[in-house]
Amino acid sequence: MRKVLVAVSIILTLLSNATASTNWADLQRQAPDLDLQLIESASLSLHILSESSVTLQPKGTVVILPDYQQHAFSPRLLNTLRLHLPAAGWNVLVMPAPETSEQISPEQKLLQQKSQLAARWQLLNQQGNLQNPVIVIAQGETAALLNLLVAEALATRPAAIVNLGAYLTDQQQNNQLLKQVALTPLPLLDLITAVDHPHATATTQQRQLVARAQQNSLYRQRYLSEARQDQPMQQWLIKEILGWLQTNGF
User: Fold this and answer.
1) Are 46 and 206 in contact (CB under 8 A)?
2) What pairs with residue 138 in β-bridges?
3) pLDDT tens-digit profile of 83-138?
4) Are the C-beta atoms of residues 7 and 104 closer than 8 Å to each other?
């Protein structure tokens, strides 16, 4: 047990003193005018992509949290969000994709992932000049981690969350995630498509049942069985997100 705790401690120490990396350099070659902001503390340095609203009075801030190995220009909806949300009146910030080690147990990995996301979220709230309300659109495993943090002890919560195919790789952990997602104490739009991870698509009905059983009116789910993410589908998803935000008073 002591060896496990020492290993976790080493992982978290290395994590807390790391510079969060992403393929910003590759993206800047595609878009030289990319607006990157550096936010940093004594233990963490983070570049985030900023897109300002086209309106004089923004509706608030949307923070996009990509999944592992995804980025701001990802064709899996993220690039469409980045391009269209400012036109709809929102400031947009895109965090770098998270990092993790596969050479550890599922329990250690989950602890590492949550600690990393919590540290980044805290730094963003301290130095990111976020304009309220703050909406988070999170993808894949990152979405699942955010839901867990909100359910546990996230000091500064967003006003609302949009999940894009939320799941955890470990099946047992993913099954335990069901209640955390369905009972999130914030307005939550749970978007799932047939091209998402099988762990996300396999639990759609269970999430819905848990939310109904607990009468959680803040939870809304949309499952799209069409196995594609072409432009017409992505435009529909954008309208779904914007319509849901407006319905919830954002």
Assistant:
1) no
2) 65, 163
3) 899 999 999 999 988 877 777 888 888 888 999 999 999 999 999 889 999 999 99
4) yes
